[in-house]
Amino acid sequence: MGCKTRRDIINLLREEPMFVSEISNELDIGQKAIIAHLRAMEDIGILNSSYKKILRGRPRKYYDLQNEVNIHITINRNNFDVQFTDDMLNTLQLPSGDEWSKLLDIEKRIDDGQLEAIDELRNQIRLYGNLLDRAEYILERTMRSR
Q1: How many angstroms separate the CA atoms of 27 and 15, rounded?
Q2: Residues with Cβ < 8 Å from 37, sequence gap 6 or more?
Q3: pLDDT of 5-14, one tens digit each?
Q4: Is 26 exposed, middle or buried (0-12, 13-18, 19+ CB in 10 A)?
């Protein structure tokens, strides 16, 4: 939510459901970037999507806000924390704002054709894999000792 584009998208969707090209035109931002933002917000439960038939052509995917979303953002020198209400995140946990922003930046650079960012993405994946391995080790060790 630290991203202005996402806040702008939410402001648009507060008024009415929209499809990608409408949002793209309103904000004067490329459709690929809009799709990435919409997908990220849909994945964490801020947005809903549905398909609606149109007279000609294939159905359009419309995006809409959930009925109510509660977000608490804490920002200080040492912390950037975003928390959603518990019912929205029964199983989903988000990376810190810094890590999320870094991934989105890498994704944007790759989408813009900066293929050297692929190596950076591979490094991030390796880092997350190492963190996951260590966390699983700690959990397994703890469960065995109980």
Answers
A1: 14
A2: 3, 5, 6, 9
A3: 998 999 899 8
A4: middle
What is the per-residue pLDDT for 16? 87
Torsion sign, CA atoms 89, 93, 94, 96: positive
CB 60 within 8 A of CB 19: yes
Q: What totals of helices (H) and strands (E) does the chain contain, helices first?
A: 5, 5
Taking only the tens place, the pLDDT of each residue in 47-73 is 888 888 878 888 888 998 876 666 777
| Long-range CB contacts for residues 101-110, cutoff 8 Å, separation at least 24 | 101/2, 101/3, 104/3, 104/36, 104/40, 107/36, 108/33, 108/36
List CB contacts of 20: < 8 A, sequence separation 6 or more.
31, 34, 35, 38, 61, 63
Q: Would the pLDDT of 89 be above 50?
A: no
